[in-house]
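pasting for ref
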Amino acid sequence: MYNMIYDIRIGNYKLAMVEQVTITKSVEKLSDTAIITLPGTAYNKALEIKDKIKRGDSVTIQLDYNKTWVTEFEGFVDKIKN
């Protein structure tokens, strides 16, 4: 499995761990979407993100392709699911 080098920022936070990221870009829809799945626990402690991340916070997803950073998504938090 390949580990992608990423820089994902939501509001004032830089994510250190992600479980999965899905970015959908479409010319048929008016906007692109990104779904960021975070792990439920880290270091045997439950992650409490609802106190830190809010609807409307800015989201930036950058990926490293052979030492070239590309911004793949810029937007805002719409929903937070458990």
